[in-house]
Write a structure and sequence with these properties.
236 residues, two-stranded antiparallel sheet, 8% strand, mainly alpha, single chain, two-stranded antiparallel ribbon, binds zinc ion, 4 strands, 2 domains
Length: 236
């Protein structure tokens, strides 16, 4: 399947006159112009670099609302990297929510294990990143596929029907941590809704043809049959 991009390259730049140090004087949610301009421009840039796709699942982000600026390393654990560009990519809402959920569970488990309620350790790092240290750029420092340092297809493969497999432990952790294989059901539900919107049978069949690139033929047939049955029942 078309994954759009292997990794984000080159790394987008800060706007002229803006630096990470200047931005760090503000919170992530600040309404200061320097912060809002940074976010707007970076998001626009990243959408282009990422060919309009989510940095994790590679689904198309159809509109700006669906695209979220995602911190690879969460900003609560590492606030000093909240404006680090290599820590920011555009993701879909589903991946964003799943990643946050996984991070919270992981951190809670780590704190129980170490018996330290303030311990900081996140699942995407293979290193302990100390306060004040530079943001890592070495692929070995990451346990998950990082959109700036790893070539996606070296670690993860996506087959039609949104079936994710992996070529490395890094890929396996990413697919499992983000529960990427759950997307197959989400996408089939979306397909059903899309086809329901089509008025006539011919229009629906033409629409389903264009889905062959991302969905398996047998899944499309199953969804089309469901829509037809539902329409028939509604008529009777
Ligand atoms: Zn996604």
């Amino acid at each position: 399947m078309n994954i759009g991009f292997e990794r984000i390259n080159p790394v987008p730049l800060y706007l002229a006159g803006t630096t990470q140090a200047l931005l760090n004087a503000y919170t992530w949610t600040s309404k200061a112009r320097i912060v809002t301009d940074f976010k707007t421009e970076l998001k626009r840039n990243l959408r282009t670099c990422q060919f309009g796709r989510c940095c994790f699942c590679r689904r198309l982000l159809y509109d700006d609302y669906a695209a979220q600026l995602e911190h690879f390393v969460d900003k609560d654990s590492y606030p000093e990297h909240r404006f680090e560009i290599r820590n920011l990519a555009v993701s879909c809402g589903t991946c964003n929510v799943k990643k946050n959920g996984y991070f919270s569970k992981w951190m809670a488990g780590y704190r129980r294990l170490t018996n330290n309620p303030n311990a900081i350790r996140i699942p995407v790092f293979s290193i302990q990143l100390n306060s004040g240290a530079q943001f890592p750029t070495n692929s070995a420092d990451f346990r998950w596929v990082n959109p700036y340092v790893h070539n996606y297809s070296d670690h993860i493969a996506i087959a039609r029907g949104w079936v994710f497999t992996w070529h490395s432990p890094t890929g396996r952790r990413t697919v499992r941590g983000l529960r990427l294989n759950d997307l197959a059901e989400v996408e089939l539900r979306a397909l059903k809704e899309k086809l329901e919107m089509r008025g006539g049978m011919l229009s629906m069949l033409v629409a389903s043809m264009s889905e062959l690139e991302v969905h398996r033929a047998r899944d499309i047939a199953r969804v089309v049959a469901k829509v037809i049955t539902r329409r028939r029942n509604a008529r009777n």
